[in-house]
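FAQ

Q: What does a record look like?
A: Structure on top, sequence underneath. For example:
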């Protein structure tokens, strides 16, 4: 009998693995709707949808291994990181999804709220929050929307050798800023930024990518803490913020 592996579980959603099948349980049907439609539209490798019976979505496992994990050295080669950059460019060049993403004003408002929470609760020193908030503001400029994954963490990208075999977890996909995807992908792995940009194949504003590193690390902290994750672990979000000082 195959074992049931709990991949991730918190009060919003859970993912289980049974053999080569992933079962995603999400009470928010809208998130699952976005995930299924985004995977159908994306011009890059995605998991096969085996069946869907809300609130459960069954997906086939993708071949290969994750590009890496935040806080740990990536086992993937520079060529694999470049291949991921090329895949992301293919996604960004695709037709836009029909649903909108967040506006710069919404993103700025979230930054305000989360920075206030970090300071009010003594989670981080005020000078660290203030410095990174100033850096993050460079991301809050007009951009031309592209088809973005929206949560392109390295654990969501799978490679086999130098080949991209699958990108998972599309529930945050939307129209958005291309540099946000590139920043999420390279968060905590700045040493691979040049590889990704080389594969992406066009000039990008590195200061804006760094701004998104600060924005994501500041705005993710409360959710991570409240859902049992540790942004203060070595190499994770708080170290990313300290590296900007």
């Amino acid at each position: 009998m195959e074992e049931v592996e709990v991949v991730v579980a918190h009060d919003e959603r859970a993912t289980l693995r049974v053999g080569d099948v992933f079962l995603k349980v999400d009470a928010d049907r809208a998130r699952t709707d976005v995930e299924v439609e985004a995977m159908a539209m994306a011009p890059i490798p995605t998991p096969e949808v085996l069946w869907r019976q809300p609130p459960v979505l069954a997906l086939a496992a993708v071949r290969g291994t994750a590009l890496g994990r935040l806080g740990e050295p990536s086992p993937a080669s520079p060529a694999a990181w470049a291949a991921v950059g090329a895949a992301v460019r293919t996604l960004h060049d695709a037709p836009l999804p029909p649903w909108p993403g967040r506006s710069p004003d919404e993103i700025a408002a979230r930054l305000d709220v989360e920075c206030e929470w970090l300071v009010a609760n003594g989670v981080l020193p005020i000078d660290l929050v203030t410095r990174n908030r100033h850096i993050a503001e460079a991301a809050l400029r007009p951009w031309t929307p592209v088809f973005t994954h929206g949560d392109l963490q390295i654990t969501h990208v799978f490679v086999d050798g130098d080949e991209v075999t699958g990108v998972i977890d599309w529930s945050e996909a939307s129209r958005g800023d291309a540099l946000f995807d590139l920043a999420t992908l390279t968060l905590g792995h700045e040493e691979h930024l040049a590889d990704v940009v080389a594969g992406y194949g066009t000039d990008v504003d590195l200061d804006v990518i760094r701004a998104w590193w600060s924005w994501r690390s500041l705005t993710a902290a409360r959710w991570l803490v409240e859902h049992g994750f540790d942004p203060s672990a070595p190499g994770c979000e708080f170290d990313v913020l300290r590296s900007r000082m």
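Q: Is there anything notable about this one?
A: Strands lie at 4-9, 13-18, 21-26, 49-53, 56-60, 65-66, 146-148, 157-160, 163-167, 174-176.
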